[in-house]
Target: TetR/AcrR family transcriptional regulator
Amino acid sequence: MHIQDSHWSSASALAAGGGAPITAAGTGRDGTRSTPLRVDAQRNLEHVLRAAREVFGELGYGAPMEDVARRARVGVGTVYRRFPSKDVLVRRIAEEETARLTEQARAALGQEDEPWSALSRFLRTSVASGAGRLLPPQILRVGVAEEPSAAAGDEARVPAQRTQPGGGELRLVPDQGAPTPQLDAGAAELLDVVGQLVERARAAGELRPDVSVADVLLVIATAAPSLPDAAQQAAASARLLDILLEGLRSRPA
Model:
């Protein structure tokens, strides 16, 4: 799996409120179409989106638009007519995959009574879907920032799913020397829902106390390798996830 930050800066206005959502039949301020697409144009759009998911999933978000066009079997001009910049396409794909993971996390929370079953179900579903290969880089930089010890009364004001043993609030960890990137509402929602899964499993004593939301997302990203053979990929993902789940689970002293 390769996740790169190339071409992400303006797409990661992924928080800064940069532009309206992109739809096949509408557009916001980002320059995409505002009129319904013809049947052939709609088909081309679907090909481009499918190709983008495949290419970015295999090569990371640094892959060129020409690779997407080649996979979609359309000219690169067709890609740019639908998405005026690579940032717009990257943002579209990342937002869709983030939303998909959030739905999977909510389903696990709502349909599994046992905390460990809910967390493991979410991980298995997410890894099988391959969405982890398309997580926004900002999501994978989520970590815990150590803060000065607070008074006992202050700790109660920090949401449980935002903290880890040892203190510290869940926030984005930027690259050295880089400004702290922001999260859009969809990505923040994903962190919140996964945080609930993590906190429930930790409170039940079934999850190692040092495991964070960032660790769970990293498992999703790394347990979905991109292999040329679909059957081999599924088998490798399942095996790797079994090993990682064993590493996450709490063990009696």
Summary: DSSP finds ten helices and two strands in the chain. The first helix runs from residue 39 to 59. Residues 1-32, 143-181 have pLDDT under 50 and may be disordered. Residues 93-248 form a domain with the Tetracycline Repressor; domain 2 fold (CATH 1.10.357).
